[in-house]
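User: Hey, quick favor. My workstation is busy. Could you predict this chain's structure for me?
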Amino acid sequence: MKPNSRLTMYLLISGFFLLLDQALKYLARTNSDFSFYLWKNWFGWEYMGNTGVAFSLPMPNIVLLIITPLVLLGVSYFLVSRKKKSNIFIFGGLLFLLGAVSNYIDRVLFSVTIDYLRIVTGVINLADVMIVVGVVVLFLDEYKKKNKN
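Assistant: No problem, here it is.
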């Protein structure tokens, strides 16, 4: 596959997940009293407006609105400036960035991040999964690169 077509494919996949996350957030927000559990109250669908950051740690929204774009610009610069980007590196970076953008959209529009997937004691969203998977992929790519040298 040509490099440009790979990049297009990675953008489409990451963009699809961003749009899917936004659609699921819309459903959760507009049906905030609906909940459904696959197993007890541990796994299922449950709306939660997260006013904090990861793990609901408290953080003023104005701080997040200012800091998040700076972090995204810094990460974008890191991703673009890296020499010899592997395909997996590009995909991991896109997952991370678009997951963060999806959560930032919530912050701007609603002053909370909309979470909807209950997993044991936490409630997360697809954007959180994208961020974590993106970071893991970036670390694995770096680990693979260092072991190769």
